[in-house]
Amino acid sequence: MASRDQPIIGGKFRKRPVTSVLQAFTHQQLGFRSYQHIWQLPSSVMEMMDEKLSKHGMPQLLSKINELSRQGKSKHKELLEFLKMLLKKLSNLDCLRRAYSEGSSHDVLKENCQIILDFDGINLILEILMNTATLPWSKYSSCENSEELLIKNVCLDILRRFFLLVEKFGEKLPYTSDILNYLFTLLVYPNAHVNAAHVLELILNSHKEMLDLNTVPNLKELISVMDDKALSNFCQILSVTISDLDTYEHKSSLYQQNKQKRSKGFFVMRDINQECLMSIPDLLPRLVHIVETTPYQPRYPAITNELDTWMQWIDNQMAEEDESVDVESSLDDFIGDSVNLYCDDPQSIMHHSLKMATHVIHRVEVFYVLGLFLVGKQRKKVQKQLAELKLIPTLADIFDNFIWKCTSGKIGTRRLRGHNSSCECSPEVALKIQFLRLVHSLCDHSEHKHLLLSRTELTELKKLNEGAGKSKVENFDVPDKSLMCRGTKGLLTKIVEVLKKEPTASTFRFWLARAVESYLRGSTCYADQMFLLRRGLLHHVAGNLIENDVRPKEILQSSFDLLGELIKFNADAFRQFERVVCTDVKFKKLVEMIERNLVDSNMFIRSLILSLEHLQTEMSTEYNFLFQEENRLLEYICNFKQQVSFLQRLITIINVKSLTQENVSCLNTALVFLMFAHKNGKMNSYLAALKQCAVRVGEKNLLANFRDLLVFWQDHYLHKDKDCSALEKSSRIKFETWKDTVTMMLSTDQKQGTSIVHYLPEHDLPRDN
Predict the structure, then answer these.
(1) Which ranges does the record mark as transmembrane (predicted)?
(2) Maximum CA pair distance of the chain?
């Protein structure tokens, strides 16, 4: 442990006479790194400094805290009071309210922070936090309200405030195992875990290197003694240590990420940390238990608007609150004075209001962490375990508590200050989004997706499968009925019903559509598609696109992706789509939307070409019927010139350096066209047409760019750690066919009409390195 002579922050101290030190302070010639021994100065000199430099009593306050911290437990009570005084310099509600009304709260707080930094106050706080006796964390309940623990909590709160108020404060703190491990031990204490989790999260987010959880001593034991509140707060730490946000230096470029993957010594710490956590047998069960048992309020039968519901609840709490309640004490008791609120009347800040908001936050954190477990290497294992823990019926019950109508449209409806009448902001926005993300991850290529149905709906699905003809799924998996949704409607149906009622530009349309799409992804099942078509989903999504001229990119993309999954390989879906685009005007509008937003619509285009090939080869009778019925969608994708136009544009809008997770699908869609072209003996025709098209539109480097993209494709998809099963299942094309087609087009034999180099001019031919 660092001593005061070996400070945690700062360099060596050069002793000076008192007068010269004061002079240096007066002329502001010293930085805070030179103040480690300022506490050796007499109190009279400290008082002179404060008076001369107008430091508002801060030097004397810090000097007193330093003095008390060295006098043992007998002075703990007094030390705690002085630390609270220091904390109030950063957070006192009355002070903040006055400063806020004058428009200078930020300046006031920053000035106080700078004084503390200048007088080495942060070193002092860290030393008090770390140098007091070690708490018996294995028996934390016995010291829940000890003065020592309260001292630590106030120190943590001071550090947390500095993170919020001082830019890049985390870079000024040391990133040592001693500090991190000590903060981890504080996570088990009811009166310290909130601030300990906040400070830990802020420290971890301030550094590029992700923490290896295997290096945290006694992690399993720490988690085992956490209560539900502490474990919920611990999810803040988990969200930092098992996320992939910091895995790559380049957050979006797949090209740069591939280069980093191939570099020597590269490893994904997220996967290591997930494996560490999955070795704790009761972690997932406890997280599911928190989801199940966290109270869900407020709800009033007569109020159908979410924001009005919350406002009514707050009004009720204010009416019931005892006027004698000490608001600041209430805040301190509950969350360690870790919330600041600006308001016209501080007495309106309610203990119960904060508690309810915390319940919502707890659920958000747990939903988010469960979702992170479902996107790592442990995904299949986690999906199975969560299914067995009956998480899906629990989510279905929680969904019933959501109120999706956030605005009532009535004049005078109360809403947050500065928010317009169409705003969807409410305390539950983040909760709903993380809920839907979790559903998406639970269903994505999952063997347990039919648990989203009720028993009645499963019976309907089985009948649909029996009548599917050639599309029937043999050995239809029947899930354990005890794990399914209760009642007559499962979670999937509930989500669909909400999606159909959501406004066109609603924030939630994207997430609702993504959740349903994930249910359909993977091996396409006719019965699943028909189950949703029966509930009017295709008609609603396609109609919404055409009738409302949807503009938001996220809603466009999620709508086209969902439509692609609904119609893939399904002749009945093509017929239903025809009823939506039943006029030339509507169909033209759809086509314009597809071609104007090619990145967003490319998965829909892929479904069209996959369906065309399937209907021609596997369902020729249905294919002929559709043509006789003049199905617009089928005629559109059958056109050779249209296919070449799609190919040309899909290749043009991307290049190796611009590839991201979002647009790499354009490359795979282009490959689908060409795989079928090769299968039907027309590869030469398509490549030749591409060359002519490039000349016509002035894209001289089109085929050279395509060749570079295919080289990238090999590097990206043929890597040993890449799981390509999803690509194979969703297209019904064996991955060997994908690989062989790319290899064929990358052949260096210029005589081969199936090789891109056959069509390249001499100056664009690849050169040997």
Answers:
(1) none
(2) 101
